[in-house]
Amino acid sequence: MASPFTDFALMSDLSQEGGKIVLLVMDGLGGLPRTPGGRTELETARTPNLDRLAAAGSLGLSVPVRPGVEPGSGPAHLSLFGYDPLRYLIGRGVLEALGIGFALQPNDLAARGNFATVDGDGFITDRRAGRIPTEACIRLTAKLREASAGLFDDCELFVEPVQEHRFVFVLRGEGLGGELTDTDPLAVGRKPLPVRDESGSGAGARAAELVNRWVAHARRTLADEPRANSLNLRGLAQDPGLPQFGDIYGMRAGAIAVYPMYRGVASLVGMEAIRFEGERPRDEIDALAGAWNSYDFFFVHIKKTDSYGEDGDFDGKVAEIEAVDEQIPRIEALGPGALIVTGDHSTPAVLGSHSWHPVPTLLWSPRAMPDAGGQFGERACAAGQLGVFHATTLIPQAMAHAGRLKRFGA
Amino acid sequence: MASPFTDFALMSDLSQEGGKIVLLVMDGLGGLPRTPGGRTELETARTPNLDRLAAAGSLGLSVPVRPGVEPGSGPAHLSLFGYDPLRYLIGRGVLEALGIGFALQPNDLAARGNFATVDGDGFITDRRAGRIPTEACIRLTAKLREASAGLFDDCELFVEPVQEHRFVFVLRGEGLGGELTDTDPLAVGRKPLPVRDESGSGAGARAAELVNRWVAHARRTLADEPRANSLNLRGLAQDPGLPQFGDIYGMRAGAIAVYPMYRGVASLVGMEAIRFEGERPRDEIDALAGAWNSYDFFFVHIKKTDSYGEDGDFDGKVAEIEAVDEQIPRIEALGPGALIVTGDHSTPAVLGSHSWHPVPTLLWSPRAMPDAGGQFGERACAAGQLGVFHATTLIPQAMAHAGRLKRFGA
């Protein structure tokens, strides 16, 4: 609402020391009723602890990108961190590299790669090379790595498998940049395109030339493969150099996430990844407790709510929400100044996909205005004190509740 | 989300004659429950008249600056008047001068002054001169006025007491301006700083030179004082020359307020102060009735709700809200086209301070969409027709209800 977005200069001016803040993100939290007149996943789940916090805290609905816009995971998280995702763009190549836990460095040029099939004249007959198995992807990326060794004097390159026909390509060296186009013509029956630089910069020209050289070399290496005899690169991009979380909010931030992609997005804004063993919510709260004294702000990411939603598994998503609820008293016991429980976007099991629906959000703090109702769910959130708000304004609201913002003006 | 702020050009295009509007501001109206599960100040107060209006009107929660940002009184009122307080800044010196009712003229340069103690080498030992009593402040400002008489040929100067160690300094003359730094180093053990101009303008250079000359002269005058043997100036500023209320909305506006500061902020946007006797809500409504035929828009400011909140006096705040409620039928009897009842910000008695919580707001009009519930309180407002909205959009909504806005487009 209001200014849809957080004003970084204002935050930096007003921030001060205060209580610790926990941002607990259940990925894809928002849902839809399974049957007409029924309850959503969150409303169905038995969540006595979240309901107790809802009775003592403020509720609302969060809009991640713009009303009606279904977000990808990258922009949805950026928005929760306060960054308007229309202004701060992360290239697809960077997200793909973060997704496999690749330790991307600031100047690295990363691309999403697809193995493809071409005919004898070089026309694409299958943009996904028949969705080769992941084992084949692993073998082919190793083959490309070996064949590419020593190709460039002054650049390092990385070819890493992802899944099926997908891989990550990273070029590391000085003076790379530009705005680089894709090689994928996005249709069969056409030839792959050369990479062009649209920035007109020297760094862009150099990057385009190196990438085109590698692509030609790689295609020659793959020529004898039956299906994956070619490849395409998409979303060539670098770390966008985002304003850093600590500079904006004056908080040292730690990230707790099972999946590398979310640690990766957090690292782009300057959060430190907190390492831990295990994959369950209780393991993540163990990590939270262990790192409690080292940070001011904690981003805790629960993945499986989204996975179950994507799988159309309503009951699985309900059970995962209940598993998170069980951990809530352990977070409370740490004594946060403010605790946010929300999602990055909605993933209703009945849709089996991310959706644009605004996301149920709970902001608990000893200084919160308690909402009526006492249940954490989509319908209760629609009548809450926080209203329907842009996700970028959530951290400032939590900071206020944790005593971390000075007064504006006299 | 929508568009954040009021578009002045749009208002100016659409405004037309219509019913009268009353903006009744109970300063610091928003509160918090005194005990868990309890009611806020507004929910506790017996307000049969406001509740009746709530049942016939629309409710919502107002965000003065940005979500999470605790406002000072100046920015909070500007926002209610429709001015985004991040865009329209009022310098601290101007607010201080307005606060004592100083009749600031457009080019006046005003500063907040603090008497201070320095040691024999000029290092500050107490930035507040031991918080000297206000009587001493009155004596010292008189001494400075006398000693400064005739110091400048072409400028007038004013030194006015405020409270304890605080005073107001105003320089009046042609060609003053710039962006002037403070003399206060904000720490003991340091020497006061010279005023510098950061605008690079001729007016800034001239103003800095004159202010520095006066400061040096004033410090010599104070040298024999035991405690207040020096002074600092902060927030040197001029009337920011805000767009005028009448030009934007096409309404002639009168301001009714007991405290000079609020008449002052209103005067900055071009409202006329309506003079009256007495300090109680009924006295203010007497003034409203008396001036009813002279204005289109009335800003009525009730101070004591905030004062009680700041004092942590829950019951006092409740009683003041009830005293305002008693006056509501008298406002209704005047036949306004729209009546807004709101606060400039929240001042929960349990916090004893301004806060960032959005402000309960009631918009009554014969043409309002009535909300369910029939009680004026924070929780009812969260579920109201107006939603959670930026304070700058309140006057346009009231104008619509009073028939003062033409249709936009065909």
Over the alpha carbons, how many angstroms does the gyration radius of chain A reach?
23 Å
Q: Largest interface: which pair?
A: A-B, 40 and 45 residues
**Which regions of chain A have little confidence, pLDDT < 50, spanning 5+ residues?**
none
Helix content of chain A: 25-40%
Give an overview in words.
- The structure is a homodimer of 410-residue chains.
- By secondary structure, the first copy, chain A, is an alpha/beta fold.
- The first copy, chain A, has two domains: 8-89 and 242-401, Alkaline Phosphatase, subunit A (3-Layer(aba) Sandwich), CATH 3.40.720; 94-237, Alpha-Beta Plaits (2-Layer Sandwich), CATH 3.30.70.
- Chain A is built from 14 helices and 13 strands.
- In chain A, the strands form two sheets. An eight-stranded mixed sheet of chain A has the order 9-8-10-1-11-12-2-13, with helices on both faces. In chain A, strands 3, 4, 5, 6 and 7 form a five-stranded antiparallel sheet that branches.
- The first copy, chain A, is globular, with a radius of gyration of 23 Å.
- The model of chain A has no long low-confidence stretch (mean pLDDT 95).
- The A-B interface holds A 1-4, 6-7, 10, 14, 55-56, 60, 63, 66-67, 367, 369-372, 383-390, 393, 396-401, 405-410 and B 1-2, 4-5, 32-33, 36-37, 40, 61, 63, 65-76, 84-86, 89-90, 92, 95-96, 351, 354-358, 378-379, 382-383, 387-390.
